[in-house]
Amino acid sequence: MSRLDVMEKPVQQADRVENSPVKVEAFVRLFNEMPVSDLVANLTTRVETFEVAGRTYPLTLNDASEAPNCYICCPSGAYIDYAIDETRNFAAHPWLRRALRALIGACAPLVRASGLDHQVQVNNWLYSTNPVPRLDRQTVAELRSALVARFPDRAIVIRSLNEIADPASIAALKAEGFRMLAARQIYIFADRSAAPAMTKNLKRDRKQLGATHLMRVGNADFAEADYARAEELYNMLYLEKYTPLNPHYRARYIAEMHRRGIISLAGLRRPGGELVAVTGLFENGGTLTQPIVGYDTGLPLGEGLYRMVMAMGQDHATARGLFFNMSAGAAGFKRLRGAIAAIEYNAVFAGHLQRRRQLAIRIMEAVLARVGIPLLRRFEL
Hints:
- The protein has helices at residues 3-8, 21-33, 36-39, 75-86, 94-114, 137-150, 167-175, 200-211, 224-242, 251-259, 305-320, 331-335, 355-378, and strands at residues 46-52, 55-62, 119-122, 155-162, 179-189, 215-217, 264-269, 275-284, 287-295, 323-325, 340-349.
- It is α+β, with helices and mostly antiparallel strands.
- It folds into two domains: 3-185 and 342-378, no CATH class; 200-340, Aminopeptidase (3-Layer(aba) Sandwich), CATH 3.40.630.30.
- Strand 9, helix 11 (305-320) and strand 10 form a beta-alpha-beta unit.
- The longest helix has 24 residues, at 355-378.
């Protein structure tokens, strides 16, 4: 028995993520056939296929000179720009909001010194949440060696690891020299082996979905005009209500991802009319994410559009027995519907880079662990 085998045994983890080679290839082909900005308006990146230990991953390449860039490929965008924007959640605590903005500003030179924007990112599906296939120490060692040899000047990054889905992978990554940078708090609708307990809020959501005057739109029912409307609805929620720093997925992206079978779509429309709510579901092996959600924010809250499209996601997960990563945001809403909070991490390897970059990353790891995680948990963000 090898040392690697011994080291990986203490933590068990189900492999809920498949990364179908066919789906990976379809995704990579899309981003090589069309200009990236035609698909995600605020993103610059290059997309390739990466294979290691019998597993296929989408891989993205980014240069520091491309910043500012969308945070899904740009850590300075995530840890500086997005973090400053997120302080809006502390509006009820103005003194704390000012202190946090000052702290983030003070840490900005540290983030830039880390050089993390000059990166190769493994398993980047260009979503805010990218479920990661199980990684053992042997795979991590092979992955690290291959990428260090090919990209000797780039940090190696893997996003979207969390304490509930990925304990064994996190342990293997740490053992092979990766640093864990806390990113955000997410919500997991985890055990789909049986029907979920029907909380008061879940019952209300499903009652509203069953009684609505709106027409349900299935995956096969989307017409060409619906893609442009889906972009509008996504923009209303994620770019206008939340922040323009979120990925700006264009109609062409939604259409091509749907046509190529990478995501499925569902929604609600006025009888005989246009969509008023939409969701895109990404099913990867036994894991579900919901990277696209949008609704007409101009309609009355009583319509319950957000509740209904989120219920569609939960129903999809329950019907198929899927582990549902509900991502970040709307914390109270998700908790009331049975989701469990977990800290999400970005795994970073920089052992081959300049010492000053390594030191900056170690300091980032410590600050995020000692300040960031307690704040996320304390305020249930």
